[in-house]
Write a structure and sequence with these properties.
The chain has 296 residues and is an alpha/beta fold. The chain has helices spanning 20-31, 46-50, 78-82, 107-111, 149-163, 182-188, 202-217, 233-246, 259-266, 271-274, 279-294, and strands spanning 7-12, 35-38, 53-68, 88-91, 94-97, 117-132, 135-142, 171-175, 193-198, 222-227, 249-255. Bound molecules: iron/sulfur cluster (SF4) (2 copies).
C-alpha cells in the first residue's frame, strides 16, 4: 500500500434525518476516490446509495450473554436475587435468562453455587468491507435491540483506516452516528474534520449546539452547514449568528430544499451523479471549501 497520509472527515448531526447521509454520498462522489465509512450503525443507509459489493465480512461481539444449564441448576434462586437487570425469570419452577434483558455482567455466574451459569460471547452485529463505484467502503449492521454500537463504530473506523491507501488519497469520508452519545463520540474522536449538518428549526439549533459542545470538547475542527435553509430564513440567520459567536467553528454554507435529493436517492444515486437541482451547486461549493481548508 505504501506510505499514506490519512485525512478523515465525518458528517454528523444532532439527530437523524437531517440529510447527512445524502451529503456524505455527494462528498464520496466528488472525491471520486476515497474510503467511505458508515458509522451510523444503528440505522445504516449509506449502502442504499453506494450499492456496495461485499468483499469481506465478520461477526461483531460487543459483550457476553448468560445462560443457565438446567441439568446443573439446583433452583436456589440466588442468581435471580443478584441480577440487577431483572433478566432472570421463573417458568414452571425453572430459572431462565431473558437474552434481551441480560446485560452480560456475569454476576449470576459468580453467585451460582452449582456452576450452572455459562457465559458466551453475544453476537451483536456484522461488519462488512466492500467495494463501491467510489472506492472501498467499511460498514456494519447492528442486530435489532442490540447495544454497544460505540464499539462497533470503532471497529468500522479501524477497518476504514486499514482500507486507506495512496490510491484513495488517504481520504476517509464517514457518515457519522447521530446524537451526542457514545456512538457519535466513537465516530468523532481523532478525525481531521467534522461537518455538522443542521436544519433551520428550534430543535435543529438546539441539537447543533449540543453536538458542537461535543466537537469542542474533543478538539475536533468543525464546520456547520444548514440544510433546507430556505424553509426558515430567520432561523438560518440565527444559526449563522450563533456559529459566529461561538468562534473557532466555520460556517460552511447553506443548502436549499430540493426535491431532487429524494429523487436521486430513489434511484440509488448521489445528487452529484443525478446531476440536477438547485442544491447541487451548494453541495459542490461546500465540498470545495472543506477541501481547501483541510487539504483533502
Ligand atoms: S449476566 Fe448479569 S444481567 Fe445477565 S442474567 Fe446474569 S446477573 Fe443478570
Ligand atoms: S444460582 Fe445457579 S443454581 Fe441457583 S437458581 Fe440460579 S442457576 Fe440455578
Amino acid at each position: 500500500m505504501g506510505e499514506k497520509k490519512q485525512k478523515e472527515i465525518v458528517v454528523i448531526s444532532g439527530k437523524g434525518g437531517t440529510g447527512k447521509t445524502s451529503l456524505t454520498a455527494c462528498f464520496a462522489a466528488l472525491a471520486k476516490k476515497a474510503v467511505t465509512c458508515d458509522c451510523d450503525v444503528d440505522a445504516a443507509d449509506l449502502h442504499l446509495v453506494l450499492s456496495p459489493t461485499v468483499k469481506d465480512r465478520g461477526l461483531f461481539s460487543g459483550g457476553v450473554t448468560a445462560e443457565i444449564d438446567q441439568e446443573k441448576c439446583i433452583r436456589c434462586g440466588k442468581c435471580k436475587d443478584a441480577c440487577r437487570f431483572s433478566a432472570i425469570e421463573i417458568k414452571e419452577k425453572k430459572f431462565y435468562i431473558d437474552p434481551l434483558a441480560c446485560e452480560g455482567c456475569g454476576v449470576c455466574k459468580l453467585v451460582c453455587p452449582a456452576g450452572a451459569v455459562k457465559t458466551k460471547p453475544a453476537i451483536n452485529g456484522e461488519w462488512f468491507v466492500s467495494e463501491t463505484r467510489f472506492g472501498p467502503m467499511s460498514h456494519a449492521k447492528l442486530g435489532i435491540a442490540e447495544e454497544n454500537s460505540g464499539r462497533l463504530v470503532t471497529l468500522v473506523r479501524q477497518k476504514a483506516s486499514g482500507l486507506s491507501s495512496n490510491e484513495t488519497g488517504g481520504r476517509i469520508i464517514s457518515d457519522g452516528a447521530p446524537g451526542t452519545g457514545c456512538p457519535v463520540i466513537a465516530s468523532l474522536t481523532g478525525v481531521n474534520y467534522a461537518l455538522v449538518v443542521t436544519e433551520p428549526t428550534v430543535s435543529g439549533l438546539h441539537d447543533m449546539e449540543r453536538i458542537l459542545d461535543v466537537t469542542e470538547h474533543f478538539r475536533v475542527p468543525s464546520g456547520v452547514v444548514v440544510n433546507k435553509y430556505d424553509l426558515n430564513l430567520e432561523m438560518t440567520d440565527k444559526i449563522k449568528e450563533i456559529v459566529k459567536r461561538r468562534g473557532g467553528i466555520s460556517y460552511m454554507g447553506e443548502i436549499p430544499y430540493d426535491k431532487n435529493v429524494t429523487l436521486a436517492q430513489m434511484q440509488r444515486m448521489s445528487l452529484v451523479e443525478y446531476g440536477k437541482g438547485k442544491a447541487l451547486e451548494s453541495v459542490k461549493q461546500i465540498w470545495e471549501k472543506i477541501r481547501a481548508q483541510e487539504d483533502l
